[in-house]
Amino acid sequence: MKDIMIIANPSSGKKQAEEYAMRAKYLFEDNQRQADVRITECEEDIEKYVKEACKEKYDTVILLGGDGTVSKSGESLKNEKHRPKIGIIPTGTINNIARGLGISTNIDQAVEDLVNFKELVTDVGMINDRLFLSSISAGSIPETVWEVSKDQKEKLGPLAYFIEGFKSLREEENYSIDMSLDGKKMKFDLTLLVIGLSNSVAGIPNFFNEAAYDDGYLYLFGLKESTLGEKISVMTSLLNDNETLSDENNKGFVIPFKEGSFKSNHNLNVALDGEKGPCFPFDIKILPAFLTFLVPVN
Ligand SMILES: Nc1ncnc2c1ncn2[C@@H]1O[C@H](COP(=O)(O)OP(=O)(O)OP(=O)(O)O)[C@@H](O)[C@H]1O
């Protein structure tokens, strides 16, 4: 068994991944651990190196990148018998998966924490046959996620999503969605549908304030057609007290579930961990206790 493989996506975020990969390697070596560094040259290299780590039975993989890098790595582990533990140094733009795991978005701190960690066994989500680690979303706001160019992201960081999302509110549309959640059939007209695994969604902490990566549930948030005032009221309840959103007759509501199927009258794409994902219809379920992450002790 080999010890640690460090996989760095040099195009993520502010392009600091390579530098921090070397810093992490030296820190591990100072702590009597052995680390091999792989720098990806293209998107396909993420899968290539993750699969190499499985084949060579590495104990741990450290990922330097954002949600795209971490999500693709998770997907690459889907059919592997040996799945290394995963540490994240969040060098991406939004880093929602790292946030949900309680990993510091201060990169220096995240590196330090890798030698003072505890293991967290987490659930993952499965949409059709694709794995996701953070969220699935559909509606006019998520549609803007993949409209944000790499250039905008580099210049504006998370603000780029906010600006695009705000523009899309003016062109808001309703989608008729038929769903079955743990066997219960429902139908709603929604402007926004979000399904998440942890408390953090799109970089917003406490989006699902009761959700945790190891609780065995997916959480659905639905927002119906509403005035700006109603939206603000729903978002305030969402970020403070999910209890008030447990009634599906409200403008906004939250439902925990384990498996579901979704159909829509629109040929709508979902955003998967912040990138363009599959179209409706889709099936979705939780895979409990599927991956092991290294998270800070505190
Ligand atoms: N050399 C490369 N290695 C790996 N991926 C690359 C490379 N060049 C471009 N990419 C692309 O970079 C994308 C962005 O990576 P990632 O999502 O990790 O960073 P980010 O977009 O800055 O962060 P976040 O998703 O957290 O906002 C990947 O989805 C991949 O398609």
Describe the overall structure.
The chain is of the alpha+beta class. The protein folds into two domains: 2-115, Rossmann fold, CATH 3.40.50.10330; 132-286, Sandwich (Tumour Suppressor Smad4), CATH 2.60.200. The chain has helices spanning 17-30, 44-55, 67-76, 96-100, 107-113, 140-143, 150-156, 159-169, 228-240, and strands spanning 2-8, 35-39, 58-65, 85-90, 117-127, 130-132, 135-139, 175-181, 184-196, 218-224, 252-257, 259-264, 269-272, 275-279, 282-296. Helix 3 (67-76) links the parallel strand 3 and strand 4 (85-90). Helix 1 (17-30) runs parallel beside helix 5 (107-113) and helix 2 crosses helix 3. The chain starts with a strand and ends with a strand. The mean pLDDT is 90.
Summarize the structure.
With 298 residues, this protein is of the alpha+beta class.
What is the mean predicted local confidence, pLDDT?
90
Class based on secondary structure composition and strand pairing: alpha+beta
State the end-to-end CA separation.
29 Å
Shape-level CATH architecture of the largest domain: Sandwich
List low-pLDDT spans: none
User: Could you describe the largest sheet, including whether it forms a barrel?
Assistant: 11 strands, antiparallel
Pfam families: DAGK_cat (PF00781)
GO molecular function: ATP binding; ATP-dependent diacylglycerol kinase activity; metal ion binding
Keywords: ATP-binding, Kinase, Lipid biosynthesis, Lipid metabolism, Magnesium, Metal-binding, Nucleotide-binding, Phospholipid biosynthesis, Phospholipid metabolism, Transferase
Cofactor: Mg(2+)
